[in-house]
Specification:
Main location: Golgi
Protein name: Glycosyltransferase 2-like domain-containing protein
Number of strands: 13
Strand content: 5-15%
Number of helices: 24
Family: Belongs to the glycosyltransferase 2 family. Plant cellulose synthase-like E subfamily.
Membrane topology: Multi-pass membrane protein
GO biological process, one term: plant-type cell wall organization or biogenesis
Shape: globular
Radius of gyration: 28 Å
CATH class of one domain: Alpha Beta
Length: about 650
């Protein structure tokens, strides 16, 4: 029988098991690291050729030791959360708060409207009162093609939403639902299933055809006044604010085929709603769990802990990865280990998508024990003004000049001017006294698309590492900005990602210097049979085995783990190095000289790394393995001649 306290709680917090094994492993690895550092400090070669290389190795190992300590901050006591949605329904079903959902897009070619509308339809179909949902599409590119896709979605929603409710289907993205399995029609009659599928595919074909042609049929433009907002002079970077309500949830005509109220559907945020809870999702990250809102509200409405919680973050999951994850894009260990560890320290990171916020915290609200949320606002305050009048009022809010000389982007809203504005926004929220919660339900809440090529992977990690390193070197450094505001454990947790870029230098040094053989007569590592070899071997083996253990527990395969380790090295000497250099250049005012990561850049980098032994033989070695000078000069001459011929050939064409 439940106690009074258990009946009152809407969620439970449970410690993740296996901590005793982890702590024994961590203690022994720490001892091994100390022995390695002792070996370096007590056996420094005499002044000469090998001393500088030895000290460099010692500095790299000291860096790795410090970084290892930082990574342990999220592994000491991770937690998992469990919600009780039945208790939420018993107490609050008649008084559930409104939720505003923001979907962001920018380019109809990079982010096809057919992809965007599947995400839109998935969040419109939540297992939640439709009249309390408002869905906003924020299109930075101001594309008429995206607006057309949204208009098509507003028509299809009248069929799709009743279908989702009638058969309680998952997922509620039509693209994902119809692609996952043909067996879904067992839930309903084959005739109805085929009808809805055909309607969806016909809609998708119309949208894709419009994108390919770059034009909207004239007869379609006559069906909604919103198409009149576009003219031939508009571009993606120069257009007036456009605010259009495609489904007005207050209108008597806004109903689906079953007569149920449809969620409000809006292009660009406006004055239409002011709900106390905000969800933001990327346009390629569809809702995969129709109960995600209710799970989040179990934290916001819990009688004991809700007043502390500023946002609820769900993990990023992908549906396009191979079983063994060849490019190492799985976030399984981050999702299952590191984010849970951050949660135990008072706040997981805000990762920019799949996150529910209190609206007030995005408006700069500081935590106060006396603060009381008005969960009823947003619904009751949606007035009776004509929707056209509201659209006109809202246009001023959508202009790029609205926030000039204000606190928007600084103290209010998402912080600007950083490649990872989500992380710095979450840090600011934590430093204002709020905590966050990491919710990882059994069925993934959101599913998106991972980078599908090596170039995309390198580029994504370059952007992440650069952004986090920029934060580390700025006034928002967690040890400075967070001092006295968040726990030391959480400060260290943020730095795991803040130091990704900086890890590139000691990694490259540690890999290249021994390979180049720059130390003569004084090896950089103890002989394999020496007792001093034991701590080196032990630290390497135990850390590797524990990495494998974490990966397997998190859902990776053995080969997938190996691919992740391989890509870990590739990213450290490419993505993180490029991110480090770009960050330093920006600090020095040389931002126009930033790297542009392309497939050629990546290929050249990998070729250089693969040929390090040849460069060593050409320019470094002085023994019998050295390439003769005439051969070196001839190869350089041949290379220059080939480059000149290539240049002349291209110039002719």
């Amino acid at each position: 029988m439940e106690t009074t306290t258990e009946r009152r709680r809407l969620f439970a917090t449970e410690k993740v098991g296996g901590r005793a094994v982890y702590r024994v492993q961590a203690a022994t690895v720490a001892a091994g690291i100390l022995l390695v550092l002792y070996y370096r400090a007590t056996r420094v070669p005499a002044a000469g050729e090998g001393r500088a290389a030895w000290l460099g190795m010692a500095a790299a190992e000291l860096w790795f030791a410090a970084y290892w300590v930082i990574t342990q901050s999220v592994r000491w006591c991770p937690v998992r959360r469990r919600t009780f949605k039945n208790r939420l329904a018993e107490r609050y079903e008649e008084n559930l708060p409104g939720v505003d959902i923001y979907v962001c897009t920018a380019d109809p070619y990079a982010e096809p409207p057919s992809l965007v509308i599947s995400t839109i339809l998935s969040v419109m179909a939540y297992n939640y009162p439709s009249e309390k949902i408002s869905v906003y599409l924020s299109d930075d590119g101001g594309s008429i093609l995206t607006f057309y896709g949204l208009w098509e979605a507003s028509m299809f929603a009248k069929k799709w939403l009743p279908f989702c409710r009638r058969y309680n289907i998952e997922p509620r993205s039509p693209a994902a639902y119809f692609s996952e399995s043909e067996g879904h029609h067992n839930l309903c009659s084959p005739k109805e299933w085929s009808l809805i599928k055909n309607l969806y595919e016909e809609m998708r074909e119309r949208i894709d055809s419009a994108v390919m042609s770059g034009k909207i049929p004239e007869e379609i433009k006559l069906k909604h006044k919103g198409f009149e907002e576009w003219n031939s002079e508009m571009t993606s970077k120069n257009h007036q604010p456009i605010v259009q309500v495609l489904i007005d949830g207050k209108s008597q005509n806004a109903v689906d085929d079953d007569g149920n109220v449809l969620p409000t559907l809006i292009r660009v945020s406006a004055l239409i709603s002011d709900s106390p809870v905000i969800l933001n999702v990327d346009c390629d990250m569809y809702s995969n769990n129709s109960d995600s809102i209710r799970d989040a509200l179990c934290f916001f409405l819990d009688e004991e802990m809700s007043h502390k919680i500023g946002f609820v973050q769900y993990p990023q999951n992908y549906n396009n990865m191979t079983k063994n994850n060849i490019y190492g894009n799985s976030l399984n260990v981050i999702n299952h280990v590191e984010m849970r560890g951050l949660d135990s320290a008072g706040g997981c990171l805000y990762i920019g998508t799949g996150c529910f916020h209190r609206r007030e915290i995005l408006c700069g609200k500081k935590f106060s024990k006396d603060y009381k949320e008005d969960w009823g606002r947003g619904i009751k305050e949606r007035g009776h003004e004509n929707i056209d009048e509201i659209e006109e009022k809202a246009k001023s809010l959508a202009t790029c000049t609205y926030e000039l000389r204000t606190q928007w982007g600084n103290e209010i809203g998402v912080k600007y001017g950083c490649p990872v504005e989500d992380v710095i926004t979450g840090l600011a929220i934590h430093c204002r006294g709020w905590e966050s919660v990491y919710m990882e339900p059994q069925r993934a809440a959101f599913v998106g698309v991972a980078p599908a090529t090596l170039a995309q992977t390198i580029l994504q990690h370059k952007r992440w590492s650069e952004g986090n390193f920029t934060i580390f070197l700025s006034k928002y450094n967690t040890f400075l900005f967070g001092h006295g505001k968040i726990s030391l454990q959480l400060q260290m947790g943020y730095c795991i990602y803040g130091l990704w870029a900086a890890n590139s230098l000691p990694t490259i040094y540690y890999v290249m210097i021994p390979a180049l053989g720059l130390v003569k007569g004084s090896p950089l590592f103890p002989e394999i049979m020496s007792p001093w070899a034991t701590p080196f071997i032990y630290v390497f083996c135990v850390k590797t085995l524990y990495s494998l253990y974490e990966a397997l527990l998190s859902g990776d395969t053995l080969k997938g783990w190996w691919n992740g380790q391989r890509m870990w090295m590739v990213k450290r000497i490419t993505s993180y190095l490029y991110g480090f250099i770009d960050t330093i250049r920006k600090l020095l005012g040389l931002s126009k000289m930033s790297f542009e990561i392309t497939a050629k850049v990546i290929l050249c980098g990998l070729i250089v790394i693969a040929n390090i032994p040849i460069y060593e033989a050409m320019f470094v070695r002085k023994d019998k393995g050295r390439i003769p000078l005439p051969v070196t000069l001839a190869s350089i001459g041949f290379l220059n001649e080939s480059a000149y011929e290539t240049y002349i050939t291209k110039a002719k064409f």
